[in-house]
Amino acid sequence: MRATVTVMLKQGVLDPQGEAVRHALGSLGFEGVEGVRQGKVIELDLTDGTTEAEVTEMCEKLLANTVIESYRVEMGA
Amino acid sequence: MKAAVIVFPGSNCDRDLAVAFEQAGFQVDMVWHKDSVLPEGADIVGIPGGFSFGDYLRCGAIAGQSPVMKAVGDHVNRGGYALGICNGFQVLCETGLLPGALMRNAGLKFICRMQTLTVTTSDSVFTRGYNAGAEISVPLAHHDGNYVIDDAGLAMLKDQDRIAFRYQGDPNGAVEGIAGVLSENRRVLGMMPHPERVVDPAHGGADGKALFSGLGAALVAA
């Protein structure tokens, strides 16, 4: 089974990389991009039966730094 | 007086840090990250700069989970001293031994140059060799030195006089120019600039020397 963890900077934490991407899109002529936030996606291949609670613990202990980042867990088949 | 300098795969300031400690009178042991105990009698643990584990996931995140960091946590919780420089500061934040986090520099560029700092407090074993308000010149070499902490945390650091150093100007976007912070018991210091790279005039400056000599003098008296 697979779990997908999406880690993003928390709302309110300035994201300098997202801001740079927004500027770059503007300079390429893409108008109307009002904001860009950049995060990361982590795919986990898990033994069947691994629980969402265990993946959440992985996020809390390592995959996200909860001082600045939030995370979302999606359990897949 | 004994210092233990931690070595992670990718550490590159470990030997410089060891030399700075030795100059100040410490006997230094290098400790590999897989060791789960610190050398007997270590007074202070030094966590050096570099790119531990290639900065994978987040700077300091993987190093923060290594066996030796459990021992460092126990050492700190017993009231032991610790000094984390650059990547070492990131490791200390990742493990929660210091508050806050270090994000990508606001200007996105790796910064490698001399930087003037203001010594914000002289009330610690690390900064007692300086006068509060003193200006010192210390090298920066980091990509992720943009210190962030929430408003409540910032108020706490200020109330408790735990900001050790501030940048003059705004090199990396760090909140209120914070370059280094102390733990609540003032025995753990994390800082992004590299004092161990300016402990000898041949380095082009010696403004970091007082940090190590002050530390040595404090611990020998303790």
Structure summarized in a few sentences:
The complex is a heterodimer of chains A (77) and B (222). Chain A has 77 residues and is an alpha+beta fold.
What is the CATH C-level name of chain A?
A: Alpha Beta
From the helix content, strand content and strand pairing of chain A, which structural class follows?
alpha+beta
Name the chain pair whose interface involves the most residues: A-B, 12 and 20 residues
Q: What's the count of strands of chain A?
A: 3
Structural class of chain B: alpha/beta
Low-pLDDT runs of 5+ residues of chain B are: none
| CATH-assigned fold name of chain B | Rossmann fold
Q: Class of chain B in CATH?
A: Alpha Beta
Shape of chain B: globular
Helix-strand topology string of chain A? EHEHE
Number of domains of chain B: 1
Largest sheet of chain A: 3 strands, antiparallel
- pLDDT < 50 stretches of chain A: none
What's the main sheet of chain B like?
Answer: 9 strands, mixed
Radius of gyration of chain B: 16 Å
Task: Write up this protein.
The complex is a heterodimer of chains A (77) and B (222). In chain A, 31% of the residues lie in helices and 27% in strands. Chain A has 77 residues and is α+β, with helices and mostly antiparallel strands. The relative contact order of chain A is 0.36. Chain B has a single domain, classed as Rossmann fold. Chain B has helices spanning 14-23, 67-77, 87-94, 151-159, 209-221, and strands spanning 2-7, 27-32, 44-47, 81-85, 101-103, 111-119, 135-142, 146-148, 163-167, 178-182, 188-191. Chain B is globular, with a radius of gyration of 16 Å. The relative contact order of chain B is 0.17. Chain A binds chain B through residues 9, 13-14, 16-17, 20, 61-63, 65, 67-68, and chain B through 57-58, 61, 65, 93-94, 99-101, 103-108, 146, 148-150, 173.
